């Protein structure tokens, strides 16, 4: 899916990395340089390289957002309809519009589309090849679609996740067109999940009994339990995603798609979900994650472009398009896998967060604890990590997470006592109690005095 030589397109000049002959784009580039000199969007050790596409399409006037597909913390995605009378309409078939959000309506976007597209072409495509969701820039200069996307977001604000309400699309020169991975008809379904850290963090403690992502999910589960967030058991343990024949009890296929567990086609769907983990690209993604980060965040060099790339491919989204009937195939058989959400993250801005998180997971016992103590009772830790379930896992003699309400005075000045008890505070003690009991009912955790 490449942009052809459209009449209404801007071509890219590989010498200047700019777009010629459009004046508008030249000014975008100087604005980019101004931002960089202030260090805001400084691309670290990634030099801006040429965007290798031949041209950038302009979104035809009159194009409407006809469906809100989804949003994350930084971007929102829409299905669009180009006027059928427009000569370039077919060039937009099968593509969605992905645009960056801003905290408040009316603010301009600071997302650097040109740099991000360059990163995608220079660093992501060599790693993921055809498995990267196709993405290309699209010109949106002064387009009415911003107003219309924002009206659409405002109209469904109450249906959005609480944390996203009130955020809008920021106007910019560009947007991204991305390959549409939604199910195309009722014979198909799409499963979406984040593979996360497919191998253990290189800076995890040697006596860890859970992987980096399961440790992180445990931390969220305790410190900030919320109705919006899935339970750790309703998300996959990343160590189960490469079909290594590891702990079967951690590898339930429906951790990839909890909503489908009660489908009448359950058995067929389970086979298809297991099939995802058998795809060689999953092992390749793991290999690339390990190759690009050999130290882990504690000692990683924020100027190391490889580390930034590792963090991007740990945070991508996997889309699996699956045909519901064996006879109905999708391009490459009954399963089509693609990875999206591949934005470059600036290590200069993120490194202290990444390090702090890893330090907290280690020091507060989330990698190693095997019990939760809450209101006088003990519970199994409800994470179902493949590491925890493996036969060579050697849990420490005692490692307890004692959960208290936020604001309650801590019993110890340090978060861990000599007896291996970590004192952890939760932001919402009632929600935590509720979620812990729900897991007991699902036989995930047991309770003892
Ligand atoms: N190519 C695609 N096909 C189908 N749906 C998509 C596609 N890209 C994104 N989406 C939907 O839009 C949502 C938000 O997109 P995206 O992940 O790009 O946002 P984000 O803000 O970068 O997310 P995050 O906060 O995880 O970084 C996705 O979770 C998915 O549901
Ligand atoms: Mg993202
Ligand atoms: Zn795990």
From TrEMBL:
<dbReference type="GO" id="GO:0035299">
    <property type="term" value="F:inositol-1,3,4,5,6-pentakisphosphate 2-kinase activity"/>
</dbReference>
<comment type="function">
    <text>Has kinase activity and phosphorylates inositol-1,3,4,5,6-pentakisphosphate (Ins(1,3,4,5,6)P5) to produce 1,2,3,4,5,6-hexakisphosphate (InsP6), also known as phytate.</text>
</comment>
<comment type="function">
    <text>Phosphorylates Ins(1,3,4,5,6)P5 at position 2 to form Ins(1,2,3,4,5,6)P6 (InsP6 or phytate).</text>
</comment>
<dbReference type="InterPro" id="IPR009286">
    <property type="entry name" value="Ins_P5_2-kin"/>
</dbReference>
<protein>
    <recommendedName>
        <fullName>Inositol-pentakisphosphate 2-kinase</fullName>
        <ecNumber>2.7.1.158</ecNumber>
    </recommendedName>
</protein>
<keyword id="KW-0547">Nucleotide-binding</keyword>
<dbReference type="GO" id="GO:0005524">
    <property type="term" value="F:ATP binding"/>
</dbReference>
<keyword id="KW-0808">Transferase</keyword>
<dbReference type="GO" id="GO:0032958">
    <property type="term" value="P:inositol phosphate biosynthetic process"/>
</dbReference>
<comment type="similarity">
    <text>Belongs to the IPK1 type 1 family.</text>
</comment>
<dbReference type="Pfam" id="PF06090">
    <property type="entry name" value="Ins_P5_2-kin"/>
</dbReference>
<feature type="compositionally biased region" description="Polar residues">
    <location>
        <begin position="17"/>
        <end position="29"/>
    </location>
</feature>
<keyword id="KW-0418">Kinase</keyword>
<feature type="region of interest" description="Disordered">
    <location>
        <begin position="1"/>
        <end position="46"/>
    </location>
</feature>
<dbReference type="GO" id="GO:0005634">
    <property type="term" value="C:nucleus"/>
</dbReference>
<keyword id="KW-0067">ATP-binding</keyword>
């Amino acid at each position: 899916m490449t942009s052809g030589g459209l009449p209404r397109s801007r071509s890219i000049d590989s010498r200047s990395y700019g777009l010629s002959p459009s004046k508008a784009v030249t000014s975008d580039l100087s604005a980019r340089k101004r931002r960089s000199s202030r260090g805001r969007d400084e691309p670290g050790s990634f030099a801006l390289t040429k965007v290798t596409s031949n041209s950038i399409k302009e979104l035809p006037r009159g194009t409407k957002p006809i469906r809100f597909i989804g949003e994350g913390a930084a971007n929102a995605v829409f299905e669009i309809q180009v006027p059928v009378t427009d000569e370039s309409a077919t060039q937009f078939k099968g593509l969605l519009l992905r645009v960056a959000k801003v905290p408040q309506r009316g603010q301009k976007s600071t997302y650097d589309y040109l740099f991000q597209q360059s990163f995608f072409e220079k660093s992501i495509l060599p790693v993921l090849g055809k498995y990267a969701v196709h993405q290309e820039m699209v010109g949106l200069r002064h387009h009415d679609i911003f107003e219309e996307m924002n009206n659409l977001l405002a109209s469904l604000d109450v249906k959005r996740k609480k944390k996203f309400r009130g955020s809008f699309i920021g106007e910019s020169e560009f947007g991204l067109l991305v390959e549409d991975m939604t199910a195309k008809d009722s014979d198909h379904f799409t499963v979406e999940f984040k593979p996360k850290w497919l191998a253990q963090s290189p800076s995890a403690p040697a006596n860890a009994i859970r992987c980096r992502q399961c440790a992180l999910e445990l931390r969220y589960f305790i410190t900030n339990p919320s109705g919006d967030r899935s339970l750790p058991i309703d998300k996959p343990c990343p160590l189960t995603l490469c079909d290594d024949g590891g702990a079967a009890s951690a590898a339930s296929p429906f951790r990839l798609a909890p909503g489908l567990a009660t489908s009448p086609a359950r058995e067929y769907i389970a086979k298809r979900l297991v099939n995802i983990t058998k795809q060689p690209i999953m092992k390749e993604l793991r290999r690339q994650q390990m190759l690009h980060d050999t130290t882990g965040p504690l000692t990683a060099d924020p100027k190391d472009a490889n580390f930034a790339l590792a963090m991007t491919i740990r945070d991508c989204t996997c889309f699996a398009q699956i045909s519901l009937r064996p006879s109905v195939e999708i391009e490459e058989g009954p399963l089509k896998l693609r990875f999206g959400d591949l934005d470059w993250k600036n290590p200069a801005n993120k490194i202290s967060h990444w390090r702090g998180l890893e330090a907290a997971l280690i020091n507060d016992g989330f990698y190693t604890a095997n019990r939760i103590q809450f209101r006088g009772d003990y519970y199994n830790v409800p994470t179902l990590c493949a590491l925890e379930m493996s036969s060579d896992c050697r849990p420490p003699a005692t490692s307890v997470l004692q959960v208290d309400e936020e604001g309650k005075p801590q019993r110890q000045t340090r978060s861990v006592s000599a007896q291996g008890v970590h004192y952890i505070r939760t932001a919402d003690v009632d929600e935590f109690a509720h979620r812990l009991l729900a897991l007991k009912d699902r036989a995930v955790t047991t309770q003892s005095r």
